[in-house]
Amino acid sequence: MTIRWGITGCGDVVWKRVAAAIQNDEHSELVSLCRRNLQKLETFCNAFNVARSSTAADDLIADPDIDALYIATPVHLHRPQTIAAAQAGKHVLVEKPMGLTTVECDEMITVCRAADVRLGVAFYRPFYPVIQRITDLVQGGTIGSVLSVSAITSTPFAINPGEDGYWRVLLEKGGGGSLMDVGSHRLELFLRMFGPIAAVKAFCGTVAVDYESENVASLVLQFESGIQGTLQCFFGTDTDQDEFAVLGTKGRLTARPLNEGSLLIERNTERVVEMHPPHQNLNSPLIADFVAAILEHRQPTVTGEHGREVNRIMELAYQNAAGVY
């Protein structure tokens, strides 16, 4: 069986990885694309040899020849497009963050469950071999009892008002800034690897730029297990701060850069460097897993419930930073 895909929101990430990941998947076919800008839509269709397209998402949602929808629109559109797609009987893989609020995520989960369609969130780092290696080392006791996990992440974000992607710093459309956009990826890993987070302390601000949303965010996390965590997220750095580290009573594991799969294992005086690079197309394992979930009638690795929990932690962070609690 072949899963026939439509994509709404043909921006940078879809151009770089998502469209090719779907086209290269042996059980997938990219049927139709949607983007509001007709000229850019035609350019995209020509580049990927996709015959069908529309400037209206409703057309793809109503199309009986589409089985699954990849939603890569600004965050404020995730909820309405997911709900409409589910009610039309389509499976949904939605970009991160899942929604603007936890309430929106709950609505998306409820509707998809009622429609008996798969709902996944496009966090692709769980499929990194280096993350699996870190997980195995932690569970095997290589670094003893885990004390803390930390991550630093950033992006240049050299986008001006009116340009594609600027919505990421507009509160009404993106819900937040660097935390929502790049920090959410690391929170997803924190939760997946170390379980529920009980409390959050946060500082979020705008430094050296004029954005509605934060370009600097720092979080301190208390896991239910007792483990502590720290997360720093930045927009506007020339260098790519991409570090993921786990500290234990007997050693430390450091992936830097995480996106390249370089892993430093430290125990006493021993230092070993391993390489566990990700798939050439970072989104390919994500697409393959979601398609398998449809065909095997199971939940995807990154479920709506998991995406919802990431949103909950970010919500707590923004509330704490604003002095709400």
Describe this structure in words.
The chain is an alpha/beta fold and about 325 residues long. It folds into 2 domains: about 5-125 and about 280-300, Rossmann fold (3-Layer(aba) Sandwich); about 130-275, 2-Layer Sandwich (Dihydrodipicolinate Reductase, domain 2), CATH 3.30.360. The chain is built from 10 helices and 14 strands. The protein has helices at about 10-25, 40-50, 55-60, 80-85, 100-115, 130-140, 170-175, 180-195, 285-295, 305-320, and strands spanning about 5-10, 30-35, 50-55, 70, 90-95, 120, 145-155, 195-205, 215-225, 230-235, 240-250, 250-255, 260-265, 270-275. Strands 8-9-10-7-11-12-13-14 form an 8-stranded mixed β-sheet. It has a 6-stranded parallel β-sheet with strand order 3-2-1-4-5-6, sandwiched between helices. α2 (about 40-50) links the parallel β2 and β3. α1 packs across α9 (about 285-295) and α8 packs across α10. The chain is globular. The mean pLDDT is about 95.
Q: What is the overall number of helices?
A: 10
What would you call the shape? globular
Which secondary-structure class do the elements indicate? alpha/beta
* Ends apart, CA distance between termini: 50 Å
Tally of discrete structural domains: 2
The portion of residues assigned to helices is 25-40%
Main β-sheet, spatial strand arrangement: 8-9-10-7-11-12-13-14
For the record, the CATH architecture of the largest domain stands as 2-Layer Sandwich
Tell me the radius of gyration. 20 Å
CATH topology of the largest domain: Dihydrodipicolinate Reductase, domain 2
